[in-house]
Amino acid sequence: MLTGMLCTGFFIMIGGAAMAQSTHTNPWAPRDIDTLPPIASLSKGVWLKGDLHLHSNHSKDASNNPVSKIVAFSESVGMDYICITDHDNHVNGDPANNTWADPEFKSKSLLLLYGEEWTTTRGHGNVFSARPYDHQRLYDVRDQRDVVVGAVKKELGIHLSANHPSGKDHFGYSYDMVESIEVWNSAVWPKNANAIMIWDDMLSSGRKLTGRGGSDSHHGTPDTPDKATKNSGQAKANYIGTPTTWVFATARTKQAVVDALTNGRVCVSANPYAPRVEFYADLNEDGKMDMMMGDNAKSTGKPVKFRVQLTGNTVADSSYTVSIVKNGNPYSTIKMTGKKPMVEFTDTPALHGRSFYRVTVEGPQTAYPEVPLSMALSGNMVGLSNPIYFNFDPNF
Ligand SMILES: [Zn+2]
Ligand SMILES: [Zn+2]
Description:
The protein is α+β, with helices and mostly antiparallel strands.
């Protein structure tokens, strides 16, 4: 009866059935962490909004969208930063087709990040950098194994982000190489369901991965002639800020924007005028918030009070629905109303093992008159937070 493979361990008989009682211990199993770095200050910072996925005419699949138009439009709708992410155009020494060398690549008020959409056979990823970097080197290794790509990425000191992670051109590399993931691509919110699922899976496996948005707009909406674009419907509905990514940065600098992105102090809103979702936690029930999204604390086994608030242009006399996700699963929903909608809930993160909480907010769309068609495509989706983490390994 005891046939087949015998490995370490021994057999005991229960009710006639053989059961292996293994002596194996998994050296990689999640273990309790000793201490965590102190949580960054909640009072020293500034909320900055922007778009992290934009194509100018330097991308071959774009139209009617010169850099000057992107900059002027972004300034007019109050953006604080943008990253123009054209398709690999800083490669093969082609200065004529180079976004950063374009004389129009300048702004008095906008922080212009340096980025590219790394466009490869295994999918797309965006680079975000506070300073110019050698994109050619990342391009050269695009077909190499991840261990090679990861080493080059590390040397370049860049933030790499997985773009539109589900479907054609999904990010087909290891998520261990990226700091963030595009969980909200374009105004078409419903198509992001699989991206959210992948994000929750990565979070649940211990990866502290920032969720961010990106309009991926290619055309100079809304005045692009229909015939100029292959997909006129989306071209008209999708432009800068659909969606808008907010970062809580320690200063109004390019590096602080990239750092906030890396640290997950980030939320995403349907458009530049929509309210932002703020998500905090009070660890010791003293009524003072100690953490915000992106922060990671050691669980004490005691209850934590969480606060969700909508800040900005809420629609008057409206009700918003907050959906709480705990450890990748639906946890509860709460309604909130009022001029400054805010709700609190209490839960006890497990003393041992990882926990994370994140929220999405649904309700009426705040108007975006410059791109009015975007509103219908976003449906009821108003905004989403990044997670608040407990017992995540900071070295992972
Ligand atoms: Zn892409
Ligand atoms: Zn793109």
